[in-house]
Design brief:
Chain A is 38% helix and 14% strand. Chain A has 421 residues and is an alpha/beta fold. In chain A, the strands form 4 sheets. A 5-stranded parallel β-sheet of chain A has the order 12-11-10-13-14, with helices on both faces. In chain A, α14 links the parallel β13 and β14. In chain A, α8 runs parallel beside α9 and α8 packs across α10. The radius of gyration of chain A is 21 Å and the shape is globular. Chain B is α/β, with parallel strands linked by helices. In chain B, strands 1-7-6-5-2-8-9 form a 7-stranded mixed beta barrel. In chain B, strands 3-4 form a two-stranded antiparallel ribbon. In chain B, α1 links the parallel β5 and β6. The radius of gyration of chain B is 16 Å and the shape is globular. Chain B starts with 14 loop residues before the first strand and ends with a strand. Classes of the chains: A alpha/beta (421), B alpha/beta (151). Chains A and B meet through α2, α3, α9 and α14 of A and α1 and α2 of B.
Amino acid sequence: MSGSAGALQLDDRDRAMLAGERGPGVALAMRVLTTIARVMGATGLIDIAGAHVDGCFYVGDVSIDFAETLRDGGARVVVPTTTNSGSVDLLHRERWRGPVEYADNAARLMAAYADMGCAPTWTCAPYVLRPRPGLSEHVAWGESNAIVFANSVLGARTQRYGDFVEISAAVTGRAPYAGLHTDEGRLGEVRVRVDVPDRWLNSEVFFSLLGHVVGRRVGGRIPVITGVPAATEDQLKALGSAAASTGSVAMFHVVGVTPEAPDLASCLPTAGPQYTVDVGVEDLRGAWQQLGSGQRGDLALVCLGTPHFSPAEFTLLEHALAGRRVHEQTPLMVSTGRRTWADLEASGAAQRLTTAGVQVVTDTCMYATPILGRVDGLVMTNSAKFAWYAPANLHTDVVLAGLTACVESAVAGRPVGDPLA
Amino acid sequence: MPAGRWVIHLPEPLLLHGRGLIDGTARADVLHLDEPLNVWGGLDPTTGTIVHRLHPQYGRCVTGTVLVLPETRGSGTNAQVVAQAMANGVGPAAVVLGRPDTVVVAGLVVGRELYGHVCPTAVLTLDALDALHSGLHVRVEVNRGLATITG
């Protein structure tokens, strides 16, 4: 099996599923999966070790129709499967500001996925949970930021599986052998040379802005990034989520940092990159300008946690608050997975944050669902992904600032500090 | 040019071939997107309108068009939005891509499986995509993996 053009070969198990021997739900899943496999140019399917479902996010009738057709047709997951953010915070239903029917539909959809055996994790950061996929492990993950994290940071192998396809893989246990599942499909395609002063490398928004620029310049290709000497998992998370929003990046290499890029030669084909992109300070400044649809106006709200905050990020948040309270005019809301929040409740950190006025949202995302209500004024965030989507989703102006500036502003009740520090 | 002679250049009829991803036939006006589209957060599935403020074709409507675009970008939920637009009757008549975009195909396949809506889908080279400018009236035919586009 090489993943190049040729008929898709199915084995006896695949054919049996397609023929309905495991029920009409699995047969539907197999029809979807094999169509996608042919588009990917796969010549065969492989077994997967796990899946992450993104389609539990309610869009409309189609969301429920698909999930319930699978479920009622007898489909159940055959590999450990986590779920992405839903459309409603099941632990804080009182936060809901949208139509009741929407929340009920969202909950009904999440229940359908749980009925099929998916773990009710409801987080866009499944890599925060343990166990998580290991080096070279084949999985079928949805959610753009999780896909790029799994490939780039964990060295696991997943294609960019969209909604409908991830659950189809989970109930069949199969995925197309193509693209990022193959060795050659993981080699870099575009050389990205970063050349910025140390002050910028140390900026709290550096990785978000770099990801924004990379996504726009490489589209869906695999970038090989040089000039970035070190990065934490959360910084790589910010880079990937931004690049997966402005582009369709599913994997990146940071030479000397990510597991498949010990040096430049290891992560490029012998023919070299398709082209080279240089990124400097002006590119980062331009990205910041582009993301801020309005840097003026009264600060109404500070939003963090796109993707879901990790335990380490909550530690940074607590440190930045330094025992102070959030100003009543500028709420500070943080999205995270319910497991992370439960761990913080057990450690006492949750209580400290709540006392400081931090409002937490679990199971969903603030920029994606009607939790905020009407926002009168500017929204400040440290997430390039939030800043990219929020203006259209929330009809609001956004400004990107580092975590420290976000916290200082939330405490002061107005924008303070250097957003690019 | 020699005096007294006119040379009339007739436009060549459009004929493009590509890889077929979803079978079907449709005839409609082209809407050409200059940039990839974030469908989720960028296309309203109730109206078929492009709502991403930074997209060059912001405000245009994809309904009933031959939608020509390099690819989608961003969220895997693009697939659900595509399927929902089809279910709402505001989807495109055909889709012509510059890359084999599985997220779009997943949405269109589910639209067909659940509701019977057929949206022929093809992939052309990016150069060929350039020939399909907005307003051109074309016929898209996809059959057994081969796509033919004529104008």
